[in-house]
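Structure ticket #2291
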Amino acid sequence: MKFQSRLRFPAACGLFALALAASVGGFADDARATEHQTFVIGTGNVAGVYYPAAGAICQAMNGVREAGDPTCAVVPGESSKANLAALRAEGTDFAIVQSDWQFWAQQGAEFFADPTPFTSLRSVMALHAEPLVIAVRRGGGIGALADLKGKRVSVGAPASASRGMMEVLMGALGWSMSDFGEVKEFAAPQQAAALCNSDIDAAVYAVGSPSATLAALTTRCEVSFLPLAGPEVDQLLAENKFYRTAAIPAGVYAGIDAAVPTFGVGATLVTRANMSETVVAALVTAVLENFEAFRALHPALTWLETDQMMRGGLSAPLHPAAARVFTEREGS
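Resolution: structure written out below.
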C-alpha cells in the first residue's frame, strides 16, 4: 500500500453521500470480504453522527487507495456495546465507540456478553467530544454550578449518558440529589418545554456540537450553558481517563457568543491488536494528511484538533501503527 498522493475531497455533501453509499454498497455485495479486499468500520444509527463520521474516514482512505489496496467500508450498528462485541468476535475490523464503553471493555465488565477484559482492544484515534451540557434560563439567577443548589433540576433520564455524567460531577462536588430543591428525570425531548415554561430551572444534556436538540432549545427561549471547570472537574478528569475536556463552541447556538468549557466522553475509533499495521498506518495517515478537508466532511468534526486525536479519552493502548504515525507527525 503506497497511499502517497494527497486527497482532494469534494466539498458538496451530496458527493460525500454518494461516496459513502458506494463504499457501503461495495461491501454489501461481498459481506465476507477478506481483510485484504475490504476492511469494515462498525458505527451507529444511519441518522446519527458515528455513521457519517466513519464515512468521512472511509472517504479519506478510499480517496488515496491504489489498485489492489483494500477498500474501507462502513456498516451501521446499534450501540457502542454491540460494536465492541462485533469487533471482539472479528465481525468488523474497526469500530466507533464512546470512550467510556472503550474503557469498560478493556477492563472487563459484567454487562458484556463476554465479561473478561478485551485485552487485544487498541485505540486508533479520538474523534469528536460528546460533553455534558447544563442549560439554564437566562436571567434566572443561575450563573455557576454552586447556584444549582436548591433549584429544580432535570438530571436526565435514568441510565442515560447525561444522567451518568451528571452523577459523576455531583460526586466530584460532594453533592447528592437532596441538594436540589426538586429533581426531575426528564428525557432530552421533554426538557426544552419544561425549561422554557419555567417548570424547571436547569436541564442536563450529553451531546456533541452542532446539536439539533440544543439549537431547538436556544431558539425556543433564552438560555445559558453553565461553565464546567475548576479543581473538582480537574480531579474528575484525572480519576476517569475516559473523560476529556471539551467546549461548547461560540456562535453555534442562539445567544451563546463565547465558548463554554465543559467535559465529557468522546467518540473513539478502535481496532484489535492483530489488525494490519499497514492498514492502520494508511488510515491514520490519510486522515492527518488531509485533515482540514476531513473536518469539513461532517459538522461534528469541525472542532476536532490533531493533538486530541491521540489522547482524548483513549484508555486502550494506541495501536503501534497509529502511535508511530502520530509520533512522526508531532516530530515533523
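Closing remark: Confidence is low (pLDDT under 50) at residues 1-35.
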